[in-house]
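Hi V.,

You were right to ask for the full record rather than a summary. Here it is.
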Amino acid sequence: FGWVDFMKMVGPLFQEKGKAIYCNPLYRRIDLYENIDGYYDEMGYGDCHSISICSFLALDKPYVGWTWGLPARVPLHEYFQRYLYLGAYLTAPMPFNNHTIKPGVADQMYVDYGQLFESLRFRKWNLEERPIQVEGAKANCFEIPGGLLIPVVLGGNNEAATLTVKSKNPVMAGPHFVEILHPGEIEWKPLVDHPLQAGGVLRVPLRQGCAMVRIVHTKLTPSAKAFMKSATVEVKSALPSIKVFKREKLGNAWIGLEEIKAPLLLTKTSHLQFAVRDARGKLLEIFEKEWVRCSPPSPAIIPEKGMIFKEKNVEIRVPSWAKDPTVRYTLDGSE
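Predicted structure:
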């Protein structure tokens, strides 16, 4: 009774209960991990060879690298972009983490890159031969619900990169959106205002040498996962004559399948799934996303601490998804 037999039994048992199994890929054999849900690689920090090897095990599963700290020999932006390039995640800093990264000087980097990593959800490796070509940076190509996701990274000081999209993904054959997202941004914005033909060329503006490009026929808005009071959720599509059906996840069960014809107003945490069908009822795509109602976030004080010998500028920064925030502060330590 070995590992493979054991996991054939345990994997489905966990999944039926709404649980997930993440495994440390010490043996780099994809067949050993058929019944797990994702990878958590203890050697997967960004300046190690393991992330380059093991991310290819995760063809259609999430991959998270153990982040014990941030290396001084690699610039922080480059470090984060190495993970984006391979469709991988870092470990997030949390108080009381056990031998992993804790909150500190890199917190703002996680905030700035957070939405780019969020866009990797449900990504699968695109296995076409040379689906893209890039000049002025590095780029990779993934499949996501509705189309393609292309991280353009490690562009250094270049203001822009030239991206040629050669993919034969079905999204390229019909109407679609071409959008871009930079570090520090929450919502996607148009890169061009027309569909892109296979072989089409894009000029991709870079920020910190980085941009995320997506080509999709249908999208969910807002992109921000968190909200404080309410969120208006909408399914937007470039396809004509579609029908959208919605259901909600409560516990381990999906309930309330219904057609929707107008935006949804959310006032509580909601895990939703949307089925997009054409006029004849053919299923085109399934989208899934959770929107989380949160308490007002604590502002970041930058710099966090230090000694003052003369006047010093201090910034109180609130996450961009917190709309119209009111910040109160004291200078004498009182509450």
